[in-house]
Request: fold
Amino acid sequence: MKDYHLGFTDSGEPVSWISMMNDHLMATGVSGSGKSFLLKSLAIQSQRLGELIVVLDYTGDWTGAFCQQDCNALALNFRYLNVRFSGFSFNPLWPQRLPSGYYETPSDVGNRVAGGLQRGFHLHTAQRTHLANLICELCCNWGAPLSLPGLIDYAGHKKNVRQYEAPIARLIQLVNTVYCGPEPTMLDLSTPGILVLDLNDIREPDLQIVVAELLLDSMWSLRDTGHGATPVNFILDEAHRLSFQEGGAIHRLLREGRKFGYSVWMATQYMTNKEMAGAVGMADLQAIFRPPTEQIHSSAVKLAGGRKEIVCEVEDALMKLNRGQFIFQDNEGHLRRVTVR
Ligand SMILES: Nc1ncnc2c1ncn2[C@@H]1O[C@H](COP(=O)(O)OP(=O)(O)O)[C@@H](O)[C@H]1O
Ligand SMILES: [Mg+2]
Reply:
């Protein structure tokens, strides 16, 4: 059970988040309402507790979040990696270790990678199957380099090359955006600190989803169940850009992450679909910052949780939220307003 300081009540009492169900968090609210500020405050506390925070940064907002002065003053171990450059290496085709201790088979690798690409790029089932088979074939072919550029090259030499055209075109886009070398993914999740993965150069929404899926997948395989393993909190700011599909990487982290000391802290301006709303409903802490005006009523109904008599009161409270303030339901079921500080 973790205990993070969130801020203060109106009367100046400190408010903590003592997670009960899991350590996942969702902050919602309009742009500028204070969601990222809360996540940054939690990230600093988290590293002090000996945890690792991995930020998937699609906006560049986190890249300069902590200046050298902050890092010195707060004793932050801040690491920054731009996924475009070879200082970062990422290889989704590298077989992952499974919880059983065995490694993925070539067909597991094919299904995992093709699944990630399907979710982001909306591949047809047939395209996904062809791609999974092609990856499987490459993994069994000891002479071929096991990397995404190697896969593209391998597909080009196939007789039935047309069958792979659509997914391969997308893979070319991927390798042109993120450095996908032949080495295994070099991320190290064992040292506490704040690790920002700069994905700001990825402009295309589908590609953002694919990279998040594949990156979270490779980090999933680094899970360490050993005693004393560093807990990892993934920060997914602007989470409406990602996929919450069942079977996808985020859904799996939300459902099973706790066993491995993984949690997900998300912030979004809005819910993209029912899948996203359902998935984030699994988060222990739902921090409701100022919603857009047209969502005040629905947010109030949700927060009131069947207590119709308080809906108007909650609407009023939501409307009055200032920057840096949110409402959440505490472990006793009471609604509380917090000013993040
Ligand atoms: N609790 C707070 N105290 C002081 N400044 C805050 C607070 N919350 C947000 N801010 C400031 O307000 C601006 C917008 O906040 P931010 O967290 O980036 O909003 P969001 O992520 O919801 O778009 C930032 O400049 C941030 O530093
Ligand atoms: Mg933000």
Notes: The longest strand covers residues 262-268.
